[in-house]
Amino acid sequence: MQEMTENLIAPCGMNCKLCYAYQREKNKCKGCRSNNEFVPNSCIRCIIRNCPVIKNNVSGFCYECEKYPCRRLKDLDKRYRTKYHMSMLENLEIIKNHGINSLLNQEEKRWICLKCGNVICVHKNACQVCKSTYIE
Prior knowledge:
The chain contains six helices and two strands. The chain is mainly alpha-helical.
């Protein structure tokens, strides 16, 4: 298993390594921070990813914006909390208060399949390799 890295944490706090688009075999996404040829259209058009504050900031996380948390981020967070049992806002607060390595360490413990050691897909609530379901 490849370890989780900073460049796979999207500006909104999503860990791209957990995303179905990143984990799938065909037309695999390279993450929100990669160039546009490897990113799905939905991510290319993402208003959060294209926010001028994000594009003009070195680390580029939403918590650095004066409007944080904006309505779009709150809505996205609510959807992910409800459907996928994870929070972008919590992830961003960890990065802001404890640093990116703290989040990466937490993510590696939380989202690793106990059966085979691969990364759980947040959108499928299962390991894409051994198909074990993940219950939060």
